[in-house]
Amino acid sequence: MITLWGLAASGIAVAGVTQLTSRQCAAMQENQVVSAANPVPCERLALVTFSYRDFQGELHDDGSMVVLDAVAPQVQAIFAELLERNFPLQRAQPMEVYRGDDEASMDHNNSSAFNGRPITGGGAWSKHAYGVAIDINPLQNPYIGKDAAGQVMVLPPAASAYVSREARLGMAEQVLDVFFRHGFLIWGGYWKQPIDYQHFEIGSRDFIARLVALPKDAARAEFASYAQGYGACMQRSDIVAMPSPVMRRKACAGLSKR
Fold this sequence. Notes:
- By secondary structure, this protein is an alpha+beta fold.
- The protein has one domain.
- Helices cover 32% and strands 16% of the residues.
- The protein has helices spanning 4-8, 22-30, 72-84, 102-107, 176-181, 205-213, 216-234, 237-240, 245-256; strands at residues 15-19, 45-53, 59-68, 133-135, 143-146, 152-155, 186-187, 195-196, 199-201.
- It has a three-stranded antiparallel sheet with strand order 1-2-3. The protein has a three-stranded antiparallel sheet with strand order 4-9-7.
- A hairpin with a 5-residue loop joins strand 5 (143-146) and strand 6 (152-155).
């Protein structure tokens, strides 16, 4: 079986962005991660490769995520900063390793991005199907929703100990500023129902549609400008005057997203 992970692993420290090849698109289709119905064609997806440290401090060179080509340079910068900060990731493998099974990926505490699937518990396309959403460390950052019977559901189930958000290694709250500065301005931890601590995404479906409609280079420039808007907001005198970094980040994320 061909896998993106096998093609990306190099045996040395890695950091790069490459457009998906027809071979890689075929591997994703074979492994039920993308189909002809997906809202973004495979040809607009890019593979971001990076190194990361695990929870024991060991360096890995096999980190890879598939994302929309427009956001790929910013995603590369995110994971370079996480490595620089020694922020741990358990693993980071494309969803084809799990044949598109989101719960299997979460059970392995896998950080991931593209997956041609609907919203959890819904019928519309997930932002993951556009390659503009990232999930990090699902065990430390659980999804909390309700099942079909209306009962509280924690995914992955082993993450129940992290529903309480006292600061611990690998929690998303430690790196909100990194994601926000690179244009991933929506964090599921701010949601009321469901709450999705692992999840970051870029903006509205209208904004995503604009990026998809633009040629790759123009879309990358548009998204880079979008990310810069958050940084400019954080320099505003009224924002600087806010009493806490949490308030400043949340305010600028809200003001800058579109």
